[in-house]
Amino acid sequence: MGAYKQFLASDIVITPFEVNKAFTFEGAAALTASVVSIDRFLGTNLSGLFQPTTDPTTGQVSTQYQRLIYNSAKQLYYSNYLSSSYGDQANVGYIVPGNNEAGNVLVGSTSSTGRYFDYNQTDLTFPKYFPTASGSTIGIISIPSRLFGNYIQPNSFIWKSSSFTITDDGEGNLVSGSNIYGNIFYYHGMAILTSGSSSDILNFVTSSAVTCSFSSSLTIYETQYKCTIRSSEFNVTLNPTAEVSGSLLSYSGSYFYQPKGGVPTDNTTGSYFAPYVTTVGLYDEDQNLLAIGKLAQPLPTSATTDTTILVNIDR
What we know:
About 10% of the residues lie in helices and about 40% in strands. By secondary structure, it is mainly β. The protein has two domains: about 10-15 and about 225-315, no CATH class; about 20-220, no CATH class. The strands form five sheets. Strands 1, 2, 7, 8, 9, 10, 11, 12, 13, 14 and 19 form an eleven-stranded antiparallel sheet that branches. The chain has a two-stranded antiparallel ribbon with strand order 3-4. Strands 5-6 form a two-stranded antiparallel sheet.
């Protein structure tokens, strides 16, 4: 049997904390395994109209069009860096309200350039390069969020292939030696190669002898429930065997005594008797059991001081 007590708002504390996990995948087969699904794409700046039946495709896990891969990366991450390697100031129009909707006035440029967040990840001013010539190619590694969590830890990304090794510098650049080859977007799990020879980019996307390493970051929330037993509470056991026996009952050939209205036996009413707590259960408003916490050893309650049991649940 159990005794119930309602929590107060002050009895529940939710605390976030960050955890990290390192991953290393060796070989193309390890990257494309169903539980991993790290995909690689080749993006190409193609002229002419989009033709679904003839446009070249790309992808190690899923199939995408090279034209759309290129245009998506340009629009999402480099739209402010096409005419200035250090970034153009965003030209976003705004509305001056009038007396009614017809009287509203649009002020500023309506150009799409710079109207998308460019995901700067550092306070430093450094250039970004994105190729815009016809036929230019880029390489993209897409890491799923179930692996990187909230974001990839800066200074943790390493890509090794048969031709070169690429790391991130902690500020969003992909570097090899003293050369910058592209950018990594930690919160999106995207590593984009925008510089280097065509063979370097193709190797980045298609090489089978590769190793990919990075560390993930995930915020876990710990909920702490403070179960306080006041000195005046729960000082009588609820064990039915500690109650005075009532009438003798018979059922299917077995005999047992029915408790007599919750009256405790004489040996449980002394001043030195104290019930022991062995289990804490958490219930919802409808008294449905949601979680059970077992104590390492029975804990006696006190008739003179409050007893507090802390229950921690991570999620």
